[in-house]
């Protein structure tokens, strides 16, 4: 599957090790993840060289062509919220995962669209298991 992975860049990188574990697992499972570079600790430097308009055009094109969006939402992020809403507006299946105990937006937890799922995890292994289960259910549709 072509999976758009969304995570915080400018909002904070406290969960970077989780981002890496998720993208590594997705790639190892044979998925295409055009945003896998977002898990890299140097992403701010990489993305800082790209004009804002180019990032917007590139990322929205990736969302339009993806089969599902997986977002790690433990850290509040304007960009991730926008990406989630954009994917939902296109009818894409969206999974938002967050570290158990982290407060997340009620705009996510209160969304009753059938194309969004919001799940907590305790560690990277559980996050990966939740994501794999979600993607498996999407591939069965």
> What value does the Rg take, in angstroms?
14 Å
How many individual β-strands?
4
Q: Number of DSSP helices?
A: 6
Distance between termini?
13 Å
- Helix percentage range: 40-55%
> Which CATH C-level class is it?
Alpha Beta
- Order of neighbouring strands in the sheet with most strands: 1-2-3-4
The poorly predicted ranges are none
Mean pLDDT: 94
Shape: globular
- The CATH architecture can be given as 3-Layer(aba) Sandwich
CATH topology: Rossmann fold
Largest sheet: 4 strands, parallel
Question: Structural class of the helices, strands and pairings?
Answer: alpha/beta
Please give a structural write-up:
By secondary structure, the protein is α/β, with parallel strands linked by helices. The chain has a single domain (3-139), classed as Rossmann fold (3-Layer(aba) Sandwich). It has six helices and four strands. It has helices at 16-28, 43-48, 52-65, 78-89, 106-109, 124-139, and strands at residues 3-6, 68-72, 94-99, 116-121. It has a four-stranded parallel sheet, with helices on both faces. α1 crosses α6 (124-139). It starts with a strand and ends with a helix. The mean pLDDT is 94.
């Amino acid at each position: 599957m072509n999976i758009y992975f969304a995570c915080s860049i400018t909002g904070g990188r406290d969960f970077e090790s989780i981002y890496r574990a998720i993208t590594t697992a997705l790639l190892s499972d044979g998925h295409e993840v055009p945003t896998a570079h977002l898990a890299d600790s140097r992403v701010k430097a990489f993305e800082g060289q790209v004009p804002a308009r180019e990032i917007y055009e590139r990322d929205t094109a990736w969302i339009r062509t993806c089969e599902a969006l997986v977002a790690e939402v433990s850290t509040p992020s304007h960009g991730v919220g926008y990406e989630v809403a954009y994917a939902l507006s296109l009818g894409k299946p969206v999974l938002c995962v967050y570290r158990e105990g982290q407060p997340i937006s009620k705009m996510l937890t209160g969304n009753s669209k059938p194309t969004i799922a919001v799940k907590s995890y305790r560690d990277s292994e559980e996050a990966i298991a939740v994501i794999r289960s979600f993607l498996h259910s999407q591939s069965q549709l």
